[in-house]
Specification:
- This protein is of the alpha+beta class.
- It is 40% helix and 26% strand.
- Strands 1, 2, 5, 6, 7, 8, 9, 10 and 11 form a 9-stranded mixed sheet that branches. A 6-stranded antiparallel β-barrel has the order 15-18-22-21-20-24. Strands 33-34-35-36-38-37 form a 6-stranded mixed sheet, sandwiched between helices.
- Helix 8 (267-285) packs across helix 10 and helix 23 (809-816) packs across helix 24 (841-854).
- The chain is extended and about 135 Å long.
- The N and C termini lie far apart (99 Å).
- Mean pLDDT is 88; it is low at 428-440.
């Protein structure tokens, strides 16, 4: 494929020029919480450009996977409506970190454009920043001056932010000809259709301070980006990026699945599906999955938009997973994560589609009706009431409603919608902050910081800095009083990060304050809640702060176990597992994580086994502080971005498991003792929860489960006995009924009452049936037979009066047993035979009757 060829040739070119070829980073920026998704090639080098870290190379080249669906760079609502916008694209780029600058960057760009991309210089145009005479002069060595255009700051100046690294840009354009517009240069082509920009060279030249002053950077750098899909569209001479090889291949797959031809009228649907399947698949492969928050919500929005467009092609069943194999076959050779994650991607896509289709089934008619009504209105407007109904009743967020409106060429009355939304919030809003709490916060500001010393100690002398009662600061507290106590330093852990607070006591002679909880209502302030049991407590008193050590240890054990659990989940289920919340208590832990389906009993057993194996290894649990910037350089340290970290972060390190964590932990893994999962469940779409216990709590849980199991076994045993008794009684009743029915079928053989019958009874029921018949038939010869799968049985019973006349059961059985391939014996009044030839039963009956005739 041309895309694959250009991608590889681009990287090979720069490799030959001494650049390190660096793999694309994941589309999920795990090392940058300021980004929703990776949206440019320079993202993975941001810390290098800022001087916060260094690499073993000073120039690099990449083909970076990018997703633009949020923030400043959001192309979502343009996809399907323009010829060049995509949510997923590949960015080719070369970078210099203080090695080469403008001259070499311009020369490389020209060589790659003409030699690797194969573009004619006659079709090229160049833009430079108005004041960048250096770049202008450098380009004149390669291009005629009339095709080098100066442009302003909006188009040709780049900045990382309001302050910091910045510099002029130079952009490369391809003139697609008069068919695409009448502009004479990129400067007078506002749509960008004729002069298509395909490469941007950023000259990172200055540092801008808060006053706007710019000074030269000590190390001037280069950051370039060329959109692969745009390059391929120009190389193939197609009107749209959707005509390029990879995207057109996906469109062909959608044609086959939908049985619809790709036409001018329906092209938007094909474009949306082809684009969105790439964003969805790469994001899922890199660890995100659809949900109701953050990146997961973006994926859900993408998927739902693709499904809605699929319905325009009459696809009313899940279809995205059917498009996926074509994507894997075209891009998998260069992005192995698609290959290794294909099954999981397909499963997640299908599950999400099914869920959304159910939602559409519930609200689809309403949605269609609203769209139809809006199309009839003069302003083609969805009213605020209608938008609010879609959100409130059917769970469609306003962003999705706006997207639906744009796709249908409608508008939404946002002012009316927001008024209704605010009214609803007012009705449901609970008071989040009482007057007392507000007063407390103002008081606490005066006591920051007080020091947490609890990593090293659980007992220490401290000074009372403040006593807060009913939101007000007081000088002393009498016995029986409840208060909030602020110390100058404390070993007590305040509840945060999912870990519950410590409890214990504050005391000095004749005074004892029982601490029932701890919180941090203001930055760097820890407040102890509780009651003064005896004595008087005054501001300025020196007290001993004593944490309930045994309880703290159990909490620490459970907290360390959450780290082991997180590690084991990734081992068993995959690296896509990410923590979504936790709770650590003395006697249990709760761990929420991103995953798309329930865990099997085998999965849970493997996770338990892995954790317990590590407990038995009894590794040391180390903790240390790093600068936040240094921690970012270590991909093996789990960091929960979205969390707020200071300049210093604490790492909890168990060799195989490293996490940023401010909680308290045990010193050796072995003290956890034993780990047991109590429950696994779903708490939201794409989010699972494991509840587990450690040490003594786990042992007690197991014993309790064993006791319940024994109780249940005893209960089941008793129930079986009762049911067995009931069954026997029922069967006896059934046998008596059968006996009555059979008693009416007696025939006379040589003046002897004879009953010969094949009966459908269970094993062991033939003799009781014969007894019931004997009581009903005072004088008779009974010949009964039953058969099972591989055997049969005969029973002969003769009444006493007929035995006296010379008819003996044992003689009859011995005579007829060969007919069933067996033998038998017994007494004069009762005898039995067993055999394997059930086909001989009728013959045995006839032989018995004949024998009775001769007696």
């Amino acid at each position: 494929m041309i895309s694959q060829e250009i991608r590889r040739n681009f990287l090979d070119f720069f490799k030959k020029q001494g650049h390190a070829v660096i793999p694309s980073s994941p589309v999920v920026p795990h090392d940058d919480p300021t980004l929703l998704f990776i949206n440019a090639g320079m993202n993975q080098f941001k810390d290098v450009f800022l001087g916060k870290s260094h690499r073993s190379y000073n120039k690099a080249a990449t083909s970076q996977k990018c997703i633009r669906v949020g923030g400043k760079h959001n192309d979502l609502d343009n996809v399907g409506h323009t010829s060049r916008h995509l949510t997923f694209f590949e960015m080719l780029g070369n970078f210099s970190f203080g090695d080469y600058f403008k001259k070499q960057a311009i020369q490389y760009a020209f060589e790659v454009t003409t030699e690797v991309f194969g573009f004619s210089p006659d079709d090229l145009w160049i833009t430079v920043f108005d004041d960048d005479d250096e770049a202008f002069d450098l380009w004149r060595a390669h291009m005629p001056e009339k095709r080098i255009v100066r442009m302003g700051e909006k188009d040709n100046f780049w900045a990382m932010g309001d302050t910091g690294p910045c510099g002029p840009c130079s952009e490369l354009y391809f003139d697609r000809g008069k068919k695409y517009g009448n502009g004479t240069s990129p400067k007078d082509d506002p749509t960008g259709e004729r002069y298509l920009e395909f490469w941007n060279l950023v000259f990172m030249q200055f540092n801008r301070d808060a006053s706007g002053s710019m000074t030269p950077l000590p190390k001037q750098s280069i950051d370039t980006g060329s959109g692969l899909e745009r390059v391929i569209s120009l190389k193939m001479g197609v009107d749209s990026v959707f005509g390029t090889d990879i995207l057109r291949s996906l469109i062909a797959e959608v044609e086959q699945i939908s049985e619809k031809k790709y036409t001018e009228e329906n092209k938007a649907a094909f474009h949306v599906i082809a684009d969105h399947i790439r964003s969805l698949s790469f994001a899922i492969a890199d660890g995100v999955q659809p949900s109701n928050v953050d990146r997961g919500y973006v994926l859900r929005k993408l998927l739902r938009r693709a499904v809605r467009y699929g319905r325009l092609l009459d696809m009313h069943e899940p279809f995205l997973a059917r498009v996926l194999p074509r994507l894997v076959s075209t891009m998998g050779p260069d992005y192995q994560e698609l290959v290794t994650s294909e099954a999981r991607i397909a499963e997640i896509l299908t599950g999400e589609e099914e869920a959304f289709l159910r939602t559409l089934k519930r609200g689809g008619n309403i949605l269609s009706s609203i769209v139809e009504q809006a199309e009839k209105r003069p302003g083609k407007q969805i009213t605020g009431d209608e938008a609010f109904k879609l959100k409130d009743t059917y769970g469609l967020p306003v962003e999705e409603i706006l997207l639906i409106a744009k796709d249908a060429h409608l508008v939404v009355n946002l002012d009316a919608y927001e008024l209704l939304e605010n009214q609803a919030k007012e009705k449901s809003r609970a008071a989040k902050q009482t007057h007392t709490q507000m007063a407390e916060e103002n008081v606490f500001k005066d006591y920051a910081p007080n020091l947490f010393m609890g990593y090293e100690k659980t007992e220490m002398p401290s000074t009372v800095k403040a006593l807060i009662v009913d939101g007000k600061s007081v000088g002393h507290l009498e016995a029986g009083g409840e208060a909030l106590v602020v110390l100058d330093r404390t070993p007590f852990y305040a509840e945060k990060g999912g870990q519950v607070a410590d409890t214990g006591i504050l005391f000095h002679p004749h005074t004892r304050f029982v601490v029932t909880g701890c919180k941090s209502p203001y930055t760097d302030v820890i407040v102890h809640t509780g009651t003064l049991e005896n004595g008087t407590l005054k501001v300025g008193d020196t007290v001993t702060a004593l944490v309930d050590h045994e309880r703290r240890q159990r909490i620490a054990n459970h907290h360390t176990a959450t780290h082991l659990l997180h590690w084991a989940l990734q081992k068993v289920l995959g690296q896509h597992i990410k923590q979504a919340g936790s709770l650590v208590e003395p006697d249990r832990l709760r761990f929420d994580f991103s995953h798309h389906k329930p865990l099997s009993p085998q999965d849970l057993r493997m996770i338990e086994d892995l954790v317990n194996e590590k407990i038995r290894e009894d590794r040391e649990v180390k903790s240390y502080e790093l600068s936040y910037e240094e921690a970012q350089k270590h991909p093996d340290i789990k960091q929960f971005f979205g969390d707020k970290y200071g300049s210093k972060v604490r790492v909890v390190d168990i060799d195989y498991s490293k996490e940023l964590c401010g909680g308290t932990h045990t010193h050796h893994v072995g003290t956890i003792g034993y780990f047991r999962i109590a429950k696994e469940s779903s708490i939201a779409a794409g989010v699972r929860r494991i509840e587990a216990l450690c040490g003594k709590a786990a042992e007690e849980f197991v014993r309790h489960q064993e006791e319940l199991s024994l109780q249940r076994q005893a209960q089941l045993s008793e129930e079986i006995k009762q049911l067995s008794s009931q069954l026997k009684m029922a069967r006896r009743g059934a046998l008596k009924d059968l006996a009555k029915t059979l008693s009416e079928k007696v025939e006379q053989v040589h003046n002897t009452p004879v009953l010969a019958a094949l009966v459908d009874v269970g094993e062991g029921e033939l003799a009781p049936l014969a007894e019931d018949l004997a009581q009903l038939l005072r004088s008779s010869v009974l010949i009964l037979a039953m058969k099972a799968a591989d055997k049969c049985q005969l029973l002969v019973k003769v009444s006493p009066d007929l035995v006296q006349k010379g008819i003996q059961a044992v003689n009859i059985v011995k005579a007829i047993a060969p007919a069933i391939g067996g033998s038998g014996g017994g007494k004069a009044d009762s005898a039995q035979a067993g055999g394997k030839n059930s086909n001989g039963i009728t013959q045995a009956f006839e032989q018995a009757k004949h024998l009775i005739q001769t007696l």
